[in-house]
Structures are given as C-alpha cells and as structure tokens.
Amino acid sequence: MKNLLKVSVIAAIVSASLAGCNQEQQASTNSAANTQATKTLTSKDAEKFLADVEKESVALNLEGARAAWIYANFITEDTAALAAAADQKSTEAGVRFAMEAAKFDSVDVTADQRRKLNILKQSLVMPAPQDSEKSAELAKIGADLGSMYGKGTYTTEAGDKLSLGDMTAKMATSRNYDELLELWQGWRTVSPEMKPLYERQVELGNEGAQGLGYTDLGAMWRSNYDMTPDEFATELDRLWGQVKPLYDDLHCYVRAELGEQYGNDKVPQDQPIPAHLLGNMWAQTWGNIYDVVAPENADPGYDVTKQLAAHNYSEIDMVKGAEKFFTSLGFDPLPETFWTRSLFTKPADRDVICHASAWDLDAKDDIRIKMCIQKTGEEFSVIHHELGHNFYQRAYKNQPVYYQNSANDGFHEAIGDTIALSVTPKYLKEIGLIDTIPDESKDIGLLMKMALDKVAFIPFGLLVDQWRWKVFSGEVTPENYNQEWWKLREKYQGVSAPVDRPADAFDPGAKYHVPGGVPYSRYFLAHIQQFEFHRALCEISGNTDPIHRCSIYNNKDAGKALNTMLEMGSSQPWQQAYKVLTGNEQMDASAILDYFAPLHVWLKEQNKGRQCGF
Ligand code: X8Z
Ligand code: ZN
Fold first, then answer.
1. N- to C-terminal Cα distance for the chain?
2. How far is the CA of 5 from the centre of ligand 1 (A)?
3. pTM for this predicted structure
4. Spacing, Cα 4 to ligand 1 middle (Å)
5. Positions marked catalytic
C-alpha cells in the first residue's frame, strides 16, 4: 500500500531503488560491530546470501502484495490490520537483509553481487527501527494514514457529501471563485488529523534510516540514483534551472489571463496565483483551465473529454484504447487476468484507495491497475501512465528479483507518459476519435494545452520532496510544517494559499504521496525524461513532423528500442539504460525545451510589457 508499483517486500526492498555502487553508503554502513564478521566472509557467502534472500523475498512479496491489494480495494479496520501486519513482516525482513548485506561491505565480491547488495541496503522506502514494537507501530501508522486519505470526504455547505474524485471533477470545470475556494478548503479538512501520525512516522522512519547508517530518511531516499545524495540534490536543481525560464513565462501569461477571468483584485498581477484557480486540487497540472487561457485563433478545436463522450467510450474502452497503443508497438496484449482482477471504477458501496496505481502481484503475469476512472481526456492520459508501469513490470520480469525494477524510479513514471505524448491529433484521427487534423496554425493551442500539464507540473514535482527532505533532516519541525509547505509552493510554483491557513492545517497531508509515503522526485525526473524518450523514439521511427506532432503509434522499431531499455530493469546503473535509448548518460531538459520552443517564443511575445515574477 505504500508503494504504487509493487506492494510487497520487494516493494519495500527494491521498488524505489536503483542499485548502485555508492561508496559513501558502503562505508557508512560498515560498522565496527560487523568488522569481525567481514573478515571471514567471501564472495561465495555473498552468493548464498543473495540466493536465500531472493527466495524469501518472492514468498513475502506475494503475501504482502495480496494483503495490500485487498486493503486498497476494501478499506476496513480489518483489512488495514492485515495489510499492516504484512507490511511489518516485509519491512522487518528488508531491514534484516540490509543489515546482513552491509556485512559484505569490505568483502571482495563480483560487480553483480555488489550491485545486488547495494540494492538491499538502499531501497527501503520506510525503514523501521530494529525493534518489533516500533516496526508494528510504523506499519500501523502507514495503514492508518492511507485509510484517512482513502476515506476522506467533505460535506459542502449545501449538504452534499463529496469524495476527492467528485471534488476533482468540479474543480476541473468550475469557474466560480467561491465554489472553487470552498472545495479547495473542504478537501484540506481531511488532513489535520493526520499530522500527529505523520510526525511519528518521520521519527520512526528516521530512526530506521539511521540504524542503516544514513543521516536521515531523506538522505536514504536520495541515495538511489547512482550518485551521492548531494549530487542528486544538485542534479535536480540543475534541471530545474534549465526549465525555470519557460515556467516563468507560462506562469506570467496564465496569471494575466486569470486576472482577466476573475479580476486583478482576486489575482494580483505581482503576486503568486491563488492555488484554487488552476483547475486542479493541488495546482499541479493546469490543463483543465485551457479554455480560460486558450490562445485566440490557435485553438485546435477539439476536446478529448468531449470526443470520448461523443464516441460513447466506457472506462474499459479507454483502457483498451491505451493497451492498443502498446500492442501497436509490438508488446503482447495484457493477460486475461488483468481484465478480471483490475479495479476500473469507483465502487458505490465501499471505501477504496482511488489514487491510480499499477500492480505486479507475482512478477509473472498477474499485473493489474486500480483506478476510479473518470471519462476525461486527463484520465485517458493517466491510463496510459498506469499501463506504462504494467508493461515495464512485464518487460523486466525475467530479471533476478533484485533487478525487477525500473532503472531509476523516474523511468517507471516516465514510460506511460512517453506513450501519451504520442496521443497527437494524427493519432486521434487514426483511431477515429476526431475527424480532422487541425493544421499547423493551431500548434500554439496544442502546445499550450500540453504545457499547462507538463511544464506547470515541474516545480510541483520538485517541491514535494524538498519539503520532505527538510522535514526528515529536522530543518523543519512540526510547528512549521505548514508554513514551510507554503513557502516552497510560493518559491517554486508561484502559487499561494488563497486564504490564511488555520493553525492546525496540515496541507501536505492533503496530497496522496505524503500520507502514502511515496517519494515524489520520481515525477520530476519523469517529466524531464519523457521528452528525451519521446524525442529518441520519434527519431528511431523516422518521424519528419515537428516533435510535438510526432506519434510513434504502430512503429515496431520504436517499440523494440523501448523494450530493450525496459527489459534491462535495474540490472545496470540507470545511466546505461538511459544511453541505450537516448544516447546520453545524463538527464537534460533540452528535449522538453525544444518541444515547447515555439510556445516559448509566443509566450514571450504575449508577456511583453507585463511585470512577470512572483
Ligand atoms: O501519482 C501519480 C500516478 C501514479 S504513480 C497517477 N502521479 C503523480 C500525481 O498524481 O501526483 C502521476 C503524475 C504525478
Ligand atoms: Zn505512476
């Protein structure tokens, strides 16, 4: 339940990880206590240890994944207790494996063994202290936080009881300032009660990470990228620095348009944008306000949500549509069990965790998604996103269990999005969802819609973990959780709380991944990577259109190249996997900047004479 991809001991052990030879970690975990033991250990011992762990993990994985699946599909006190018990068992095993793995730090082992040992040491997402009472407490907190979020509702002043899905749908289309404000504040009433649990989770998670030799849990999370934790933080800053000028121009233009819509008294033109006006509960993607900011004369003239309705698409039709894209590239169709075991719609009679996720129960072929699908263009993209996880899981299933993971966690998040970048007008016409392809004069509209989702997301993708890293390191203490959250929201996104927040507010808790304990930098990375993957695949497919009009649909060469990277799993440092597809060993924002270059020119022109910045 903690993990969106694989909810199991391997989730706990491997899923957030990229194995790497992180010397710093090796040294720090090589405590005096185990120096004696390391003298007598050999590579042969490592081989046996790794084989034993592999066996134990496979069994624990299936058990944990099943418990987590049932819980997430049917939230009750009982299922939460069962899931917590399974999670405790997995986490305790993970901690034990990590401690044992550290005993091989000074042993001369093969490169492959070293990689596997490092994976064991680095990749617990929420490590427990070595104390069974505390590990039980930590597991229970995780389940309780998940339940609070999953069951959260808000009853409006008019008396309607709304789920997050209901509120999300309303915020996408409402242009009523007060109604939006009520929904925005309403959802944030679910999180204050999470705060004491979250504080305790931070304490226990830190204690667990420190027991494994890390300074704190944030450092442990940052150690999964085949570079030192500090290098990783610097890398994120570098990438953000590349994108920021484009973001700033988008922000400036959108703020001006919102000023026209709601009045400059409500949207002051020299301040951050009120967070409830951007069409999304967290202001993380802005595509839903495309109609408010659409460029005059450049509107492509179709709306995927309306086209899905016009063609009577059901939720399953949407999933079948997304599957077809993958099979058109040469991937095998999803197994029959995917269709019978997945959850596609919100059940009327029970609480479920609606936040979309993709699962791999057995590392064979029992892959599923769990999603309360809404019939919108936005959700059509999310379905592609989820299936990207499933096709990745299937591609690496023949790797040893240690490597059954993406090259780094950004890759897992980027694959489905990469495919969704190929959902272009040409493709929509090909599958019969639209009748005519808008001509080039409409490109700015197309790019604007895409930028509202992709470019707007990037600072949000960065700040969630900037906040958590400060919380984990103790730089930010519980009294300041909420103020710091808004400080970062203003600094990176230029978005502010529309009203003073109550003293007990815990607004980070209103975002799934915080109570869910899911690291978030992965989405930031994915938004950079997916444009590099798209550019590379388009080149392979022989595309001659501008990159934003390229669709790799039906192109088997592109599918083959993609699969070559996917089937590597995490068997190599991510840089190697990256190179296989893009030719580069370093992430770079030039692909996203090239993609949006025509829009950026246009935005600069629109912003002439405006006072940008926040
Ligand atoms: O959580 C998700 C996916 C599941 S891994 C639906 N995403 C992030 C979010 O919703 O906040 C996808 C993009 C960002
Ligand atoms: Zn995802």
1. 38
2. 11
3. 0.95
4. 9
5. 355-356, 385-386, 389, 413, 513, 523
